[in-house]
Each structure stands twice: as C-alpha cells, then as structure tokens.
Design brief:
- The chain is of the alpha/beta class and about 270 residues long.
- It has a single domain, classed as 3-Layer(aba) Sandwich (Rossmann fold).
- It is about 40% helix and about 15% strand.
- The chain contains 9 helices and 7 strands.
- A 7-stranded mixed β-sheet has the order 1-4-3-2-5-6-7, sandwiched between helices.
- The protein is globular, with a radius of gyration of 17 Å.
C-alpha cells in the first residue's frame, strides 16, 4: 500500500442510516453509516483441535434470562486487502458457522472502501445469511475509515448494548488522536474491540494496539500461514459476545483451546 496516501473522507458522503436498504452493488440490507453520528498464539492449531473446538462451542448456551448478544463485525475492504480477501472471507464466515449452535448472537456487518463509502448491514441472526452478505463485498481502492466505524459502534451501543467488535484490516491512514478519542468513547461504554491485523504495517500495529488498550479488547496479527489460529480466535470472540466472559473462561478450561486462553490473557491486561 502506498505510504503517501492521505485521508480524503468526506463528512457528507453518506446519507442517513435510517434509509438503509438494498442498494446497487452492495449486500442486500446494507446501508451507509450515518456520518452525522460521528465523524498470536505460540503455535498453529491442528485440524483435529479446531474440530474439537467447534464441538465444544455447541455445548455453550447463553445464561437463562440473558438477552441476545450483539457483535459488530467490521472489515477494511480497500484494495490493499485484495490478495488475501477470499481467504479472509472464508475464515470470517467459518467463525459464524462454528457458533451457529451457541445461539444468542446477532451480528452486524460493517465495511468501508472506495471514496468515503462506509456501510452497515441490518442486524443478522442467521450465520448463513451473514456469510452470504460477506461474500458479496469486493475490494475497492480507498482509505481507512476506522474513526467512522468506531463512531458507528458508539451510536449502536447507545441505542442497544453491543457486546463486542471484531475489526479485520491491514492499514491505518487516519489521525491517530481522532481515532483514539472515538475508541475511548467506545471503551467507556464497555465495548471491547478485537483487532485482527493482516500484514505487518507498523502504523497499523501501533494504532490497533492502542485501540485495543483503550477499549479493553485485544490485538492479534495474522497471515496466510495462521488460518487455523485466526479461525479459533474469531470463534472465541463470538462465544464471548454471545455468552459472556464466563463462557469464554469455561471454554478455555475444556481441552486445548489456545484461542480462548489467548483472548482471556488479553482481556486480563
């Protein structure tokens, strides 16, 4: 990704989120984010361990009387991610398929790309529907819009609690103080952000770690060689969002779940 790209976001580029609906070229049910609202584990898991992990997920259910968990899944869909986009989509879809039997989890897909395009889907409870939504998104050249994503999360959480945010990206091209201010607001609402960094861009690493710290979330780097690890970590985040910290603690004690243990270590920092 060129290092001299600058942030060219337009605060008036998107229409009000209340007009979300099917739009040409975007997933059904996805709509623009309201710009007025805001401007690794040590070793790779084996296939057998991942299969066992998925089986353990099926034994976890939300505590009686608890409301459904809500998780915002945000993606950088700019052109720099195109080389590994299909791999990432497959892993992200696997995350929700793995927790299908956990229950109690609604997910909203948020992505940005192009010239100020930043969209959010409706809240989805069906993993297959979310997987279909994700596969319709393709990469388009543009700049990162993490500040807008965090502002959107803040607004959603003020309307109804958001239990966790997953962000997958590879770059950072914004004013870090502005983004950290938004991250602090999200953190005050008790919403942890789990950031998964593709590649080794130093600016992204610095920013992602700070966002994780401010929101009491976690940061992890991944690449094509750590697909199994990412799958397990994403699934552990989904369990956390659906059933809370206690479910994640139970998961970490059953068998060999490196993903759950890693997230707990990060949350305890």
């Amino acid at each position: 990704m060129p290092e001299d790209r600058k942030d060219k976001r337009s605060p008036t580029a998107e229409s009000d989120a209340s007009r979300r609906g099917p739009l040409a070229g975007v997933p059904p049910g996805a709509g623009p984010i309201d710009s007025r609202r805001d401007q690794t584990p040590a070793r790779a898991a084996t296939d057998a361990e991942v299969a066992a992990f998925v089986e353990r997920l099926k034994t976890l259910t939300p505590a009686p009387g608890e409301k459904r968990g809500r998780l915002v899944f945000a993606m950088d869909a700019t052109m720099s991610r195109e080389p590994t986009w299909d791999l990432a989509l497959g892993l992200q879809a696997d995350m929700f398929m793995a927790v299908k039997d956990v229950g109690g989890l609604d997910v909203q897909l948020v992505y940005f790309r192009g010239a100020g395009e930043c969209r959010a889907s409706k809240w989805v409870s069906d993993p297959e529907a979310l997987a279909r939504l994700m596969t319709t998104v393709r990469c388009v050249g543009g700049h990162t819009q993490i500040e807008r994503v965090l502002g959107h999360v803040r607004g959603e959480s003020e309307a109804a609690r958001v239990n966790a945010v997953v962000y997958v990206g590879d770059a950072f091209e914004e004013r870090i103080d502005d983004v950290c201010a938004k991250a602090g607001e999200v953190g005050l609402l008790g919403v942890p952000v789990f950031l998964f960094q593709e590649g080794d861009d130093t600016s992204a690493t610095r920013a992602y770690k700070e966002i994780a710290r401010l929101t009491k979330g976690a940061w992890c780097r991944f690449d094509q060689g750590s697909a199994q690890q990412l799958r397990e970590l994403l699934s552990a985040v989904a369990v956390y969002a659906a059933s809370g910290r206690r479910a994640l603690e139970r998961l970490s004690l059953t068998g060999n779940s490196a993903g759950a243990r890693f997230l707990l270590e990060q949350l305890n920092k």
